[in-house]
Every structure is written in C-alpha cells, then in structure tokens.
C-alpha cells in the first residue's frame, strides 16, 4: 500500500503543486524546487521520507519569513485534492519543521487546523506534543470541541500512542491518562471518521494498558450503537489475544461448543499456493460464537510467529450445526514473505484453542 501511495508523489503531482504556488507567489522557482526535491536520492526514499523532503524543500523556496510562507500556502491548500489525496500532507509537515518557534505557536496551531481538512495534520502535531505535552494536549482538547469533523478527528488521531508512520508518543505509552478526556468528548461523535479514530486510539492503548481499556469498554458498552461499535473496534487486539474479560463483555463465553471433523485439505503445499481447512461446530443451547484461526508462520530465522485471522461471528441456536470451509493463501505479499518449514493452523472459538494441525510449506524448485 505505501509503495503505491509514495509513487503518487511524482514529477507530475509536484509540478502541479509548484505551479499553483507560483500562481500566487511569482518568485517561486518551479524548476529549481523540482530538481532539488527529486534529486538522486528520490527513488530510494520511502513515503514518509518523500513527504519530509518535499516539506523541507518548500522552506528553501518559499519566503524565509514564516508568516509570509503560511499566507501563500493558505491561498492554495484547498487545491490539495487536485494534486494528491489527503494522506500524510506535506503542508502540515512544513508547519512541523518551520513553525515550532514560540512566537509562531498560535499561527502554527491555526495552520494545522486549517490544513487538516485537506491533508491530515495527524503526523505533524506529534512533534508539538513531544515538545510541550501539557500545552499541546490543552490545544487538542479544544480541537475535540470544534464544529469541524476533520479538526475533531485530528485531536484524537494525532495523540494516538502508536500512530502508524508517526513518532511514537512514549509518555502516552507509559501513561495514557491525558488522552482520556478527548476520547470521552468524542465517543458519541456524529462522524464515523471521528469515532473510528477513537476506536483506533483505544486499540493503541490496549497494547500497553489492557485493563484500562477493559474498564472503558465495560463503561461504554451498551450505552449507544456508536459506543458499541467503538468498543468492539477498539478492543480488536484484545479479542484476537483471547482476553477473557473482554470476550465476556461481548457475550463470548467459554460455553459448550462442540467441534468435529477439523481437517486440512493437504499435509504439504508450496509457497504461493493455498491451503483449505474445514470443521463443523454445534451446540445444545443458544450461544454466541466468535470463530478465528491462527497460523504459526515460520520466520526467516526458523522461529515461529502466530497471526490470528477472523472467520465469523454469529449466534448458534439450540441444537444448531454449522459447517465451514476456509481457504488461506501462502502467496508472498508486500507485508508478508513466506519461508519453508512446518507451520501450524489452530482453530480458535471464543478465545479458546479447539485444535491444531501441522502442515509443511515447501519452496518450489526453480527449473534450470
């Protein structure tokens, strides 16, 4: 995914940016900006590094006076969608790089709030949190009350302890308490984008403070359909990990569900192929069932690492039987490379392992 996104930051899109800047600031040197940005290092840069390089280079060709540069950006930022989508915008990163001086604080806060509507400021705010947590979190709480849903989302997404591609907020990993007022403020927000951010923030917190998130889940669950969705999505890691108290909140008790005929289609496959497995479940009394399976992947060093995959959630009726067949691919993808060796597939129901089967993943011989 990041590969395809980073390739959107190309000559064509940056040329459009440069020409729009020049349309409101005639002194902007289009060719020099493009040449210095897309230099010999460009092809080797990943997504975040490309964004940083664009942002940094803008500072070399816009006016040296920060307020004048912001005034120019303000005149064209609404065109962002004509050049790129709103992911990881370089104008907010420009604010992060050049706008952290004390005298520029208010101007930078206003710019981040304006720019996040076109190109999310979620990555840029983190440097301000790290520099002055108390002051910035006060600002984030104010943003959580904004009339603009993008600004409200920024208040939550920007303070996630482990935002992907963002600087880790170590202090919030140790103590997420400063985040909680924002989550409370936004838990019933009318915007699904804001509620999703609340859920993602909870999921981040759950990785270091599972009992805190369990307590929040108990307090929020059953109050509204909005908070029910947030809690379920925010507890997804705890559910995958089989956290008993969280499973119980959603009614997934360790009840008597019988598993029969759990089997693999093959005992060995080649990298790039699929493996199928099947099973039958039944129960004598109505019960909720959360079906998952785990793959114990062989890593490059020979050790194994488990990944959990969801199959389904349902309510089984009295004396009901259900048969399942599931296929899993072992084709290499950008986020996972496969290695030969003995793998395992484990069936998990309501957080409890119900059977494990081994199979061999083989390297396909190259014909010569």
TrEMBL record:
PROSITE patterns xrefs: HEAT_REPEAT (PS50077)
Record-linked Gene3D superfamilies: ARM repeat domains (1.25.40.290)
Domain of life: Bacteria
Residue spans crossing the bilayer: none
Pfam short name (any one): DNA_alkylation
Protein's name in the database: DNA alkylation repair enzyme
Lineage of the organism: Bacteria, Bacillati, Bacillota, Erysipelotrichia, Erysipelotrichales
């Amino acid at each position: 995914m990041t590969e395809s996104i980073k390739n959107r930051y190309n000559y064509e899109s940056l040329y459009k940016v440069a020409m729009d800047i020049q349309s409101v600031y005639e002194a902007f040197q289009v060719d020099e900006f493009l040449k210095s940005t897309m230099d010999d290092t460009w092809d080797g840069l990943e997504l975040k590094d490309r964004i940083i390089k664009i942002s940094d280079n803008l500072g070399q060709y816009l006016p040296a006076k920060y307020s004048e540069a912001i005034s120019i950006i303000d005149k064209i930022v609404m065109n962002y969608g004509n050049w790129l989508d709103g992911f990881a915008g370089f104008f907010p990163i420009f604010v992060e790089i050049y706008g952290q001086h004390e005298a520029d604080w208010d101007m930078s806060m206003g710019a981040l709030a304006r720019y996040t509507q076109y190109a999310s400021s979620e990555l840029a705010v983190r440097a301000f949190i790290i520099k002055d947590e108390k002051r910035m979190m006060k600002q984030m709480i104010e943003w959580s009350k904004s009339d603009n849903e993008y600004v409200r989302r920024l208040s939550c997404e920007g303070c996630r302890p482990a935002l992907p591609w963002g600087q880790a907020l170590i202090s919030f990993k140790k103590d997420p308490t400063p985040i909680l007022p924002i989550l409370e403020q936004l838990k019933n927000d009318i915007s699904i984008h804001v509620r999703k951010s609340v859920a993602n923030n909870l999921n981040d917190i759950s990785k270091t403070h599972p009992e805190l998130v369990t307590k929040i889940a108990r307090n929020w669950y059953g109050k509204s359909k909005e908070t029910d969705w947030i809690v379920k999505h925010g507890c997804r890691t705890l559910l995958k990990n089989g956290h008993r108290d969280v499973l119980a909140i959603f009614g997934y008790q360790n009840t008597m569900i019988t598993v029969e005929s759990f089997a693999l289609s093959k005992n060995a496959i080649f990298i790039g192929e699929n493996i199928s497995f099947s099973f039958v479940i039944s129960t004598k009394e109505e019960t909720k069932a959360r079906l998952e399976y785990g793959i114990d992947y062989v890593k490059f060093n020979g050790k194994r690492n488990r990944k959990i995959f969801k199959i389904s959630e349902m309510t089984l009726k009295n004396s009901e039987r259900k048969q399942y067949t599931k296929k899993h691919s072992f084709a290499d993808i950008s986020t996972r490379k496969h290695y030969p060796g003995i793998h395992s597939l484990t069936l998990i129901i309501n957080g409890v392992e119900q059977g494990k089967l081994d199979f061999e993943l083989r390297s396909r011989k190259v014909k010569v």
